[in-house]
């Protein structure tokens, strides 16, 4: 029951947090602030790896409740999203909330007018049906959001992170727990670099670099594991291949964190029109977590079948993701949420 309730809470917060951040952030800081969400996730994973080496899982579960306990009173002090207030026709509250967020010395007239125009041109209703999602102005951003979030997991990242110890053991690493903990620390650093780059380089170019790097790393690791099956464990070649596989796995996590880790959630919160954010975002989040569940449940079986074949499968998905990004994903850097959503009409 505890795991069910925690899953329910994580499912809600994994969607509402990036959307809330995107809706309250200034245009020039939206990328950096949005990626802080993923940075926090990677830091939490690292802490779980680190503490898990020294304390039992029951105590670890109790420690995990502490941030939640701190968050509850904090939520009473944050303002409501101005765009949500505008959608609910609470214009005065919208202006008040935006003024609090931007500072009382800031002129918010232009931004308020943009929000009002976007809300006025969208559906007047606060709810929308599944049938209406098939309209082009809704269908395109929804498919892009779902596509990025599904491909994010199909690349096998959760399988690599959750079964890192087993993978490192298969690679011949003696202290697999320490290697796993180091992997978590590297992921935090790589995501931190992405946070700094997002509003400078742009989303699209980082996605292309990230997916290209992931594809090359997965291909290298796959080839190494296929070769190791035919080499004696006492040979010098086996040791060299072990180091290559270790570098390949670490590089895969770094390149994933460089773009595919944070950007799909950020872009989903940016491209969905305000009128379908609730329904469309819920569908995209559900697709993400269902894919995560499928990868988590199948990775161990696939590793038992063939480690090299597992990484080769993930490589094919990453290669397709490059094509997906190049052909269909737009750049959203330097554009307001209203401009992004209007471009799909």
UniProtKB/TrEMBL annotation:
Keyword Transmembrane found: yes
Keyword Cell membrane on entry: yes
Protein name: Major facilitator superfamily (MFS) profile domain-containing protein
Lineage summary: Eukaryota, Viridiplantae, Streptophyta, Embryophyta, Tracheophyta
Family, as annotated: Belongs to the major facilitator superfamily. Sugar transporter (TC 2.A.1.1) family.
Primary localization class, coarse: membrane
Record-annotated Major facilitator superfamily (MFS) profile domain positions: 1-333
Subcellular location: Cell membrane
Record field: transmembrane: 32-51, 57-78, 142-164, 176-198, 205-227, 239-267, 279-305, 311-329
Superkingdom of origin organism: Eukaryota
Gene name per UniProt: LOC100282396
């Amino acid at each position: 029951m505890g795991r069910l309730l925690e899953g329910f809470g994580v499912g809600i917060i994994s969607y509402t947090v990036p959307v809330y951040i995107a809706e309250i952030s200034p245009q020039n800081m939206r990328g950096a602030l949005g990626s802080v969400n993923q940075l926090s996730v990677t830091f939490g994973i690292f802490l779980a790896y680190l503490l898990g080496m020294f304390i039992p899982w029951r105590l670890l579960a109790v420690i995990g409740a502490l941030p939640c306990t701190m968050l509850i009173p904090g939520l009473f002090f944050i303002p409501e999203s101005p765009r949500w207030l505008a959608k609910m026709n609470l214009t005065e509250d919208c202006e008040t909330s935006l003024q609090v967020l931007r500072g009382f010395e800031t002129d918010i007239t232009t931004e308020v007018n943009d929000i009002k125009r976007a809300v006025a041109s969208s559906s007047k209703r606060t709810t929308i049906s599944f049938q209406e999602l098939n309209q082009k102005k809704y269908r395109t951003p929804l498919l892009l959001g779902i596509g990025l979030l599904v491909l994010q997991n199909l690349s096998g990242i959760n399988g690599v992170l959750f079964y890192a110890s087993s993978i490192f053991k298969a690679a011949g690493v003696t202290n697999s727990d320490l290697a796993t903990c180091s992997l978590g620390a590297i992921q935090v650093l790589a995501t931190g670099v992405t946070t700094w780059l997002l509003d400078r380089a742009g989303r699209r170019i980082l996605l292309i670099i990230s997916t290209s790097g992931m594809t090359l790393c997965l291909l290298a690791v796959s080839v190494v594991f296929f070769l190791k099956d035919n080499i004696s464990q006492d040979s010098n070649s086996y040791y060299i291949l072990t180091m290559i596989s270790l570098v390949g796995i670490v590089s895969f996590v770094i390149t994933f964190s460089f773009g595919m880790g944070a950007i799909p959630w950020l872009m989903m919160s940016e491209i969905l029109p305000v009128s379908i954010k609730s329904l469309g975002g819920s569908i995209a989040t559900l697709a993400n977590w269902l894919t995560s569940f499928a990868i988590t449940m199948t990775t161990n079986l696939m590793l038992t079948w063939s480690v090299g074949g597992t990484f080769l499968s993930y490589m094919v998905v990453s290669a397709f993701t490059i094509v997906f990004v190049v052909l269909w994903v737009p750049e959203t850097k330097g554009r307001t949420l209203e401009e992004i959503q209007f471009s799909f009409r």
